[in-house]
Design goal:
about 15% strand; globular; about 120 residues; 4 strands; 4-stranded mixed beta sheet; alpha+beta
Length: about 120
């Protein structure tokens, strides 16, 4: 009986530790200090592509990136809606999607994972 309880405790510990490791905090900056504002949604595979590219190329060390999750954060949804109004290049007639990257210095929006990654590559960072 003691062995079973010990094994269960070990399993619970591994599950707890695994969840903590997978919940890596994203660096965050106020929008006005950021080089890039990335609007993304939990569970969005295209958003993960952009975040993965940023991680793999250590761009968090080279750019101040403000990460704004919009699926579960109403405040960030409002920020996204206001940001898109600054970007005439984004057609919002079909709705606003993510990932949406915003360069606050150039007032430029980049919609989608492939365009965002290409934009980051062209920044020569």
């Amino acid at each position: 009986m003691k062995k079973i309880i010990f094994i269960i405790l070990i399993i619970i510990a591994f599950i707890f530790i695994g969840k903590k490791i997978s919940q890596v905090a994203l660096p965050d900056y106020p929008d006005e200090q950021a080089d890039l504002v990335l609007y993304w949604g939990k569970g969005c595979p295209h958003c993960e592509n952009v975040k993965k590219y940023i991680r793999e190329n250590n761009l968090d060390d080279k750019l101040k990136i403000a990460y704004r999750e919009v699926y579960y954060d109403n405040s960030n949804q409002t920020k996204l809606e206001n940001t898109v109004k600054l970007c005439p290049e984004v057609d919002i007639s079909q709705g606003i999607g993510v990932p949406l990257s915003f360069d606050p210095k150039e007032k430029k929006c980049i919609l989608g994972d492939t365009p965002a990654i290409e934009w980051l590559k062209n920044k020569n960072i």
